[in-house]
Amino acid sequence: MTVETRRGSSKHLDGELLTRTSWVNARTAYKQVVKGKVDGNKCALWVRTHIQRYLYKIGCFIHLHCGKVLFVGLLLLSLCCIGLKTAQLETNVEKLWVEEGGRLQEELEYTLKTVGEGSGITNELVIQTPKLGSNILTQESLKQHLEALIRVSKIEVQLYGITWKMTDLCYVANFPVFDTPYIQNLLEVILPCVIITPLDCFWEGAKVLGPENSLNTLSSLPGLKWINLNPLKLIQNLNNDYADANILEDILIRAGISSAYQEKPCLDPTDPDCPSTAPNKISKEIPDIGAEITGGCYGFATKFMHWHEDLVVGGVRKNKTGHIVKAEALQSIVQLMGETQLYEFHASTTKVVSIDWTQDKAKVVLQAWQRKFTQVLNGFTNDSMPDNVYAFSGTSLLDIMKEFSNVSIPRVALGYVLMLLYACISLLRWNNAVQSQSGIGIAGVLLVALSVAAGLGICAVLGITFNASTTQIIPFLALGLGVDDMFLIAHTYAENAKNKHIAFKEQTGECLKRTGTSVLLTSVSNMLAFFSGAIIPIPALRAFSIQAGILILFNLISVLLIYPAICSLDLYRRENKRVDVFCCFQSYADSNVVIELQPHGHSISQHAPVERETSPPSYSPPPSYSPPSYSELLARDTIAQSTADGNHISTTLAPTEGQFCTRMDSLSTGCPSTSSSRQCLTPDDDITCKDHISRAQRECLTTTMSTLAAKYYGPFLQKTYVKVFTVIFFVVIVIVASWGTGQVKDGLDLTDVVPRGTSEYKFLEAQAKYFGFYNMRLVTKDLDYPNNQRLLREYHQAFQGVEQIVKDDNGALLNTFWLDLFRAWLTELQEAFDEEYKNGKITTDGWKQYNTSDKAVFAYKLLVQTGNVDNPTNKEQITRVRLVSEDGIIYPPAFYNYLTAWVSNDAFAYDSSMADLHPFKNYWYHNKNDYDILIPKAQPLMYAVIPFYLTGLSSNEKILSVVIKIRSLCDSFSERGLPNYPSGVPFTYWEQYIKLRFYLMLALLCILVVTFLVLSLVMMNPWLAAVVVVVLGMILLELFGFMGLMGLKLSAIPAVILVMTVGIGVEFTVHISVGFVSAIGSRNKRMLMSLEHTSAPVIHGAISTLLGIIMLVGAEFDFIVRYFFNVLAFLVLIGLLNGLLLLPVLLSIVGPNGEVQPKNNADRIPTPSPDPSPKPKPKKLRPVRTTRSSRRLYPKIPSDISLTTISEEPSQYSSSHEIIVQPEVVVETTTVPTEGGAAGGRSRSGSSGGSSCSSRNSSPHASEVSIPTATHVTRVTATATVKVEVHTPLPGSVSDHEHRHKSKKRKVKELVDSSSGSNSDSDSSSRR
């Protein structure tokens, strides 16, 4: 097969084959091991051989069809980008951070299935802090707080053509339905919104309740508002006119509603509306605000509305008597209905008749009002006010998360532009516009960017939702990792382009063959690492891991299949001498070159045949001969020097120790432009200072990272004291990092994800500092409530020991437990019944209509209930059963009948309990005049709530400890047969931290194990894999310790960064490790060679990753700067330190053996024998008639005999310019045994790419050798001395130059033929 090769020296490539055999050609290394010439890892070489073979074929195919491959690849990637249209951004924290398949997800799903979405109430918070000083308990501050709440009560939004006020949305205490329209209308208008505020300690709290318009409809009580309303007195005045007034009066008394605000002190006793019943109305004294707030405040219903002081004031300082003397913050809570309640409330009103009222519209209305609430209050404070007022609503967190998750297009674009600039500058060759690689650098970055977009498009099509980690990390991470591999291929492509021995059509194949293994290793390791990270059952982490793995796959496909096509197109540009980037311009810089000798290492052989994968054979007629051009002759390995007399210039072929490079004449400033070439070739003694400056400039422009690593950094690391210092340095780092890991706390402060300086940030900061207030609900489910009342009461009392739960003044739990309220109501009815029954007003048959109380009649109806659907009532049992037993157990058989009556008729107490019982569909309203005694039975409860308030949770540690403690209590009762679970913000958002460390450690362990297995299987070197995994583990430890030292907390997003640390660390370690095991020599030498060839791509990758994240510095979210930029930047730093300092030192000390190990610890393998000629097919053999005797052809067998060459001293001619060539003829034959000893063998010899001729026409003559039974063909070496005189052509003498070149070719051919013929005759005579 004819292989196209480039004319020129092959020394550079040969040197790499001999010293980095498995890197250049694993097949050659494998054969050497099989033959026993060298030792090595046969399995690793066998795997590498097959990988390189396929990569080589792929590269050759891409080069042949580069335009088509590029077009199809870009088209497919662009089509994948269309999938971005279906991308969904998830900002719901519950769906992002709740463990998939965990107990919290099961609990949330159960709640959603039972009560529906949007149930319950929402709290809108207002916090006020002083601008100056530290005490906010002043009259002026409380007046400002009052003004802020009044402003809230007047907020309106326009939606669907309807004006929505706070009274339309707020949570209002529920009362039973009355038959008297006047009473019912009165309650609907006068019942206020529930607002928890410190103003309820004063009369001014009534101003917030309204109503906005006075009750002028009541002619007897005009201008009625809460500021002048005495509810109990009002109802008592109506007793004589309305029958239901007595029932309402009883409800008010039981709820603690009496004089409301009329007997509370006035903040401003000079206010004309201050009632005369106020304690300080007459004295006009300002009340002691601290003393009034001590113990908390009471709303208009004192029995159910006790606001503990921890809810309304913060930063409290008390005196010795326990009275508050100072506070630093005030807090009010406006309670609104949830979207479900809002929908159900207005579904039966005339307000929404004109629109298609749905729960979704209710949600929109609620969120619109909440946003306006925060907007109004955050803009409320002005310079004249003494305090700052901040607001936070239910939608504030959602808006923050949405804003946090949005992609900053300018920031991403600027980051990519910086990456483009770096790729352009780092691959630019200032001194050679043709050899520059800026174009492929820019194209590579754009290709990776397109690949990232395509991968995200596929993720969107697969239904993987985007979140904050996707939008803030993925674009930069994927770009950095993809560009790393791009730089490695570009670096190898530049090295191969300098090697004139590699055929033009094989350049891309050779590039992929050498770099493909490293790219595959890093990419596959990264993919499997990220996919392993999906074992963390947190949706945000799982989505990130899967998306990152898919993007790595897309980057791998793009870098291995599409980017080589770009490199192939760039090869055509180079061949055509086109300027980099500006391909329309052609460069003529190479027309005038200076040949400069640079010494090689002495260990490199002059003859090292190169074994490469060959393209499929193509049969074509031999190319026509064309003489070399003058520039080609000058570009050969020659030395131009002056003769002894100084009158002539002699150009001779360089010795084998040298290597030549070309440089631009513009850099040769040592010789003036007007000087002749003879002046430039004067001895070194005449070098001037200007020449030294020019040389220094030239060396500066030609210095690269690879040369720095080979000349300075690598030898520096080889020193013993440097290794000792490095090991000690990293031991210290590990100790410090281990201490730092102990300082990492769990949790995520909301202030971290809110931009600093905003009102939301200041609110969250104050709320965490002064209050730490959260709602909590205990949910019981699927319980036999009638027969487990005692267990349920024990369950409630068990939380008495939780310090953070708000309690009353006596230290007891607040009276909000629905079962307690239910039992108290029944007990009150039982007492009324006992008294009436004793007095004879009630008998077994019934009650007397006129003199029996409503409570006694109600109790009678309850006592006759049996709970049996077949026999629902029994009047005979009224004296045998009691509604509540002496030990506090509600009569179990009729429990659900009683429950229906309680929920329907004691609605205020039921609403205050916030029990939210489900399912509950039957309502029954008591009427004394109704003799129907059957009370419908409620359905068995599946869902019941016990509410609590948590306070003092100012830090993540406190929140997490409370969550764990409450979870432990709940679990203990679940084991006792009471299924239950806690609910609320702390349990939704902090639940993840309970098992986060376990899942994180499990994921990291899996990732490290997967990385170890991949490296072990591909490299067949567990030792190397273990060293790499150890370094990756150290990177993880150092990064985790850094987080502790910087005060960063462990949450889901830092966990994502720790997961991807292994992926980024692989880029810093695998390239160095592969370069180490593929080199030949001692550990120190292999470490040096690895750094020389891989340090530049590693550094470029690190810088590119750093540039990818540099734009995060300008993010408005402090969380992005602290947790993304700082952590990722430190990761790049420690990755470089471990990859380029620790890893090389470890490899030089305890590194594994190389894949190829020459005998006697040599630094290179023996010169490999060329491949044997292909065995001819017997059917196609035809007798050949020649002028010589006919010869039989035998298949060639590789020989182990080394070849040597002999060169004679050249002579010089007296021409003005001559080239003395020292040719060599390498003839290799094979030893072929013949049966019977009669047949003589004639061999066909194969020559290396560097051989000038072969012995396919004849065998050399050799001395006769006696053999017993077989004849062997021996191998001999023939040499020839050729003298060729080539004169420098004068301008216009091209024909003369061509004539001399042809003459040279004829002389070489004739001399070789004559030498080969003589040796062949000698060999023939020996066989006779």
Automatic annotation (TrEMBL):
<feature type="compositionally biased region" description="Basic residues">
    <location>
        <begin position="1299"/>
        <end position="1308"/>
    </location>
</feature>
<feature type="region of interest" description="Disordered">
    <location>
        <begin position="1285"/>
        <end position="1328"/>
    </location>
</feature>
<keyword id="KW-0472">Membrane</keyword>
<feature type="transmembrane region" description="Helical">
    <location>
        <begin position="1123"/>
        <end position="1150"/>
    </location>
</feature>
<feature type="compositionally biased region" description="Basic residues">
    <location>
        <begin position="1176"/>
        <end position="1189"/>
    </location>
</feature>
<dbReference type="GO" id="GO:0097108">
    <property type="term" value="F:hedgehog family protein binding"/>
</dbReference>
<feature type="transmembrane region" description="Helical">
    <location>
        <begin position="721"/>
        <end position="740"/>
    </location>
</feature>
<feature type="transmembrane region" description="Helical">
    <location>
        <begin position="1052"/>
        <end position="1077"/>
    </location>
</feature>
<dbReference type="InterPro" id="IPR053958">
    <property type="entry name" value="HMGCR/SNAP/NPC1-like_SSD"/>
</dbReference>
<feature type="domain" description="SSD">
    <location>
        <begin position="408"/>
        <end position="569"/>
    </location>
</feature>
<keyword id="KW-0812">Transmembrane</keyword>
<dbReference type="GO" id="GO:0005119">
    <property type="term" value="F:smoothened binding"/>
</dbReference>
<dbReference type="Pfam" id="PF12349">
    <property type="entry name" value="Sterol-sensing"/>
</dbReference>
<feature type="transmembrane region" description="Helical">
    <location>
        <begin position="998"/>
        <end position="1018"/>
    </location>
</feature>
<dbReference type="InterPro" id="IPR000731">
    <property type="entry name" value="SSD"/>
</dbReference>
<feature type="compositionally biased region" description="Low complexity">
    <location>
        <begin position="1313"/>
        <end position="1328"/>
    </location>
</feature>
<feature type="transmembrane region" description="Helical">
    <location>
        <begin position="1023"/>
        <end position="1046"/>
    </location>
</feature>
<feature type="region of interest" description="Disordered">
    <location>
        <begin position="1233"/>
        <end position="1270"/>
    </location>
</feature>
<comment type="similarity">
    <text>Belongs to the patched family.</text>
</comment>
<dbReference type="GO" id="GO:0005886">
    <property type="term" value="C:plasma membrane"/>
</dbReference>
<feature type="transmembrane region" description="Helical">
    <location>
        <begin position="515"/>
        <end position="538"/>
    </location>
</feature>
<keyword id="KW-0675">Receptor</keyword>
<feature type="region of interest" description="Disordered">
    <location>
        <begin position="604"/>
        <end position="629"/>
    </location>
</feature>
<dbReference type="GO" id="GO:0045879">
    <property type="term" value="P:negative regulation of smoothened signaling pathway"/>
</dbReference>
<feature type="transmembrane region" description="Helical">
    <location>
        <begin position="409"/>
        <end position="428"/>
    </location>
</feature>
<keyword id="KW-1133">Transmembrane helix</keyword>
<feature type="transmembrane region" description="Helical">
    <location>
        <begin position="544"/>
        <end position="566"/>
    </location>
</feature>
<keyword id="KW-0325">Glycoprotein</keyword>
<feature type="transmembrane region" description="Helical">
    <location>
        <begin position="440"/>
        <end position="466"/>
    </location>
</feature>
<feature type="transmembrane region" description="Helical">
    <location>
        <begin position="472"/>
        <end position="494"/>
    </location>
</feature>
<dbReference type="GO" id="GO:0008158">
    <property type="term" value="F:hedgehog receptor activity"/>
</dbReference>
<protein>
    <recommendedName>
        <fullName>SSD domain-containing protein</fullName>
    </recommendedName>
</protein>
<dbReference type="InterPro" id="IPR004766">
    <property type="entry name" value="TM_rcpt_patched"/>
</dbReference>
<feature type="region of interest" description="Disordered">
    <location>
        <begin position="1157"/>
        <end position="1189"/>
    </location>
</feature>
<feature type="transmembrane region" description="Helical">
    <location>
        <begin position="1098"/>
        <end position="1117"/>
    </location>
</feature>
